[in-house]
């Protein structure tokens, strides 16, 4: 199968480079000409400056689609719709779309599969997610992830190699939601890290975060076991603890007293959780799902609540059974 990867940020670049090294035919699509030029002429990406990038890059979106059997999405979710609008429907007809992005669209509350099917009715869809920081994948550090959806077994074979191990799952909704929700929780973890390196608090936060993710997922028919796997607790652990996580970093900066505008001006990278939390709070309100950690992340980012005030709010909630619904 031939592949194109849409999105030349850190993950799209790392993933396409890995597929190229697997011996697959791959094109990376970038929206900016200067990125393509650097990758093609200097084997350099500003998103992964320590690594040689050997994959071919193009800025011609529809040419990339025509060339490929599998179209891989690595575009921040709030910008995905705008890119999909530019794709010629006939060129993508009956192809496979594999999503790597982790988020929920604010304007519609949709997961990536739902956005894709709104545009293209005759495509096959799969999602790949799990603990997989691009910075480690380009260094060939052992990584394991989950893939769910159509052609999962064929994709699993093409993508896996001696350092990147792909497991299959049948739960597309769960894999999508777990990947989106853990980004919110990583912001909360970063806020805690910025306040103090507190082991008890971090363990409590991650455990209650997982329960919150499961409650939300179940409202959409996601399987409990998915949240116990690589795309659930696995990705939650890595994102809440990793020095590479942009979501955790964003939280840490907030706790240091910086305002959001100032933090965003420091990087071109995307912390998806900052946007997903807006979508999740709208959905949770509508469906009456209690999401205390997400609510505090939302209040801090969008309402100016201080991290200390949020911590007090969380700790002074009415006492209850650990597994309340
Ligand atoms: N980084 C990682 O380790 C992992 C990331 N992911 C997920 O992959 C997805 C892509 O993230 P990642 O590769 O990390 O991106 P990065 O944060 O590394 O880079 C930002 C990307 O967003 C693009 N972008 C910024 N503004 C726009 C816009 N207005 N329209 C379209 N694209 C825009 C940038 O394009 P440009 O350079 O042209 O500005 C760039 O490709 C996210 O959903 C993320 O959660 C999943 C697993 C691992
Ligand atoms: O999803 C990721 C790792 O699995 C990347 O997380 P960040 O976007 O927080 O860097």
UniProtKB/TrEMBL annotation:
Name of the top EC class for this enzyme: oxidoreductase
Query: SUPFAM superfamilies under this entry?
Result: 6-phosphogluconate dehydrogenase C-terminal domain-like, NAD(P)-binding Rossmann-fold domains
Q: Which residue intervals define the domain Glycerol-3-phosphate dehydrogenase NAD-dependent N-terminal in the entry? A: 4-150
- State where sn-glycerol 3-phosphate binds: 102, 130, 132, 182, 235, 245-247
Residues that bind NADPH, according to the entry? 10-11, 31-32, 47, 102, 134, 246, 270, 272
Pathway(s) where this gene product acts: Membrane lipid metabolism; glycerophospholipid metabolism
Reactions listed under catalytic activity? sn-glycerol 3-phosphate + NADP(+) = dihydroxyacetone phosphate + NADPH + H(+); sn-glycerol 3-phosphate + NAD(+) = dihydroxyacetone phosphate + NADH + H(+)
Which residues constitute the catalytic centre?
Answer: 182
Outline what the protein does.
Answer: Catalyzes the reduction of the glycolytic intermediate dihydroxyacetone phosphate (DHAP) to sn-glycerol 3-phosphate (G3P), the key precursor for phospholipid synthesis.
User: NCBIfam families from the entry?
Assistant: PRK00094.1-2 (NF000940), PRK00094.1-4 (NF000942)
The family classification in the record reads: Belongs to the NAD-dependent glycerol-3-phosphate dehydrogenase family.
Q: What is this protein called?
A: Glycerol-3-phosphate dehydrogenase [NAD(P)+]
Q: What is the lineage of its organism?
A: Bacteria, Thermotogati, Thermotogota, Thermotogae, Thermotogales
Gene encoding the protein: gpsA
């Amino acid at each position: 199968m031939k592949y194109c990867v849409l999105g030349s940020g850190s993950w799209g670049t790392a993933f396409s480079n890995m597929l190229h090294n697997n011996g697959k035919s791959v094109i990376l699509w970038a929206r900016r000409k200067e990125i393509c030029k650097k990758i093609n002429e200097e084997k350099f990406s500003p998103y992964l400056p320590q690594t040689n990038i050997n994959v071919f890059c193009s800025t011609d979106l529809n040419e990339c689609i025509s060339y490929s059997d599998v179209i891989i999405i690595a575009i921040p979710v709030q910008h995905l719709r705008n890119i999909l609008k530019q794709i010629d429907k006939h060129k993508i007809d009956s192809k496979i779309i594999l999503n790597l992005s982790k988020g929920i669209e604010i304007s519609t509350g949709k997961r990536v599969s739902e956005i894709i099917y709104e545009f293209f009715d005759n495509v096959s869809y799969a999602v790949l997610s799990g603990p997989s920081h691009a910075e480690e994948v380009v260094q060939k550090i052992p990584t394991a992830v989950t893939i769910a959806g159509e052609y999962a077994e064929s994709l699993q074979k093409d993508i896996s190699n001696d350092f990147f191990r792909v497991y299959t799952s049948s739960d597309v909704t769960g894999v999508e939601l777990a990947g989106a929700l853990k980004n919110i929780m990583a912001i909360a973890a970063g806020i805690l890290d910025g306040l103090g390196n507190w082991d008890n608090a971090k363990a409590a936060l991650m455990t209650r975060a997982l329960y919150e993710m499961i409650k939300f997922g179940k409202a959409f028919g996601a399987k409990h076991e998915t949240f116990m796997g690589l795309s659930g607790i696995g990705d939650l652990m890595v994102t809440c603890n990793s020095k590479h996580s942009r979501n955790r970093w964003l939280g840490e900066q907030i706790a240091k007293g910086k305002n959001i505008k100032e933090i965003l001006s420091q990087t071109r990278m995307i912390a998806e959780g900052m946007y997903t939390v807006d979508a999740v709070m709208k959905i949770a309100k509508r469906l009456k799902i209690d999401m205390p950690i997400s609510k505090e992340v939302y209040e801090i980012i969008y309402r100016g609540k201080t991290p200390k005030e949020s911590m007090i709010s969380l700790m002074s909630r009415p006492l209850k059974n650990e597994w309340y619904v």
